[in-house]
Amino acid sequence: MFERMASTTGLFRPRGAVAAGLGLGTSQLGTLQALAASTESVAQIISIAATAEALAVTLTGAVIAGAGEYDGAKGLPPMMVSWVKAIQAEEQAHYEYLTKAGARPLTLTFTVPQNLASITNDSKALLDFVVAAEGIFIGAYIAAAAEFAALGQPGLTQVAYQVAGVECEHRTLANYARGATPPNNLGFENAPFHTVGEAADKVKSLGLLGTPSPAATLHYADFAGKVDRMGVSRWTP
User: Fold this and answer.
1) Where are the beta strands (DSSP E) in the chain?
2) CA atoms within a 13 Å half-sphere pointing along the CA-CB vector of 38
3) CA-CA distance, 143 to 163, in Å (whole number)?
4) Do 48 and 98 contact (CB within 8 A), yes or no?
5) Number of domains in the chain
6) What angle do CA 20, 25, 27 make, to 5 degrees?
């Protein structure tokens, strides 16, 4: 599907993420800006988060654009597409807040490695991937909360958990769509990372931040301007 769209839209360049995102209220934005300007570790945290958010906007945008090509052109169900649009809007809103705070994404160009090519045309593969990816993003924000707490910033710790809660909603929706029973299947969230950097390494290991001979190369700029924010509210904590 990505290869096919490449020839018709120019969005994809085949060659042989964390609403999700750190949603910052006005009261916390100034604090985060000051910390990011003076503390390298905080700047790293929010820059990694912004990278993850840009990745999520990009991947969800690709899914929306190619929704009709899934499962042998049967297409994704309209309800699922509406969920993906809302997820993308949330990710984009938080990316904007992060960059306002001084975050500098590590990259805005992402790749789909050959071993994940099925997420571009098979709904089961896509949903399995979303559940796994959201687990990484949730773990990243739990780690961010701990790091902010260690810096004596309870307000930012709270925001990180508010964001993690929305990431959990995304994972539950994907679980529901793939028929998991129950879709809300954890009594306590996993906390697999001690730092946000560890989460970034996990994402990188998947090949999403650059891999040789990818199935597709995607650019954040191709999707950011097409975000549909309809139906999504609460843009700050």
Assistant:
1) 109-112, 216-219
2) 7
3) 12
4) no
5) 1
6) 150
Q: Among candidates 93, 196, 199, which has minimal Cα distance to 145?
A: 196
Per the domain annotation, does 188 fall within a domain?
Answer: yes
Domain extent at residue 209: 2-222
Give domain status of residue 229, yes or no: no
Decide: 90 and 45 in contact? Cβ < 8 Å.
no
CA–CA gap between residue 187 and residue 174 (Å, rounded): 18
CA–CA dist 80, 185 (Å, integer) = 20
In a domain, 29, yes or no: yes
CA-angle at 210, arms to 118 and 214, nearest 5°: 40
Which residue in 203, 143, 132, 206 sits closest to 174, CA to CA?
Answer: 132
What's the predicted TM-score (pTM) here?
A: 0.85
At residue 131, what are phi and psi to the nearest 5 degrees? -60, -45
Percent of the chain with pLDDT strictly greater than 70: 87
Residue 236 in domain: no
C-beta of residue 64 within 8 angstroms of C-beta of residue 84:
yes
CB 116 within 8 A of CB 207: yes
**pLDDT (tens digit per residue) in 93-125:** 889 878 888 899 999 999 999 999 999 999 999
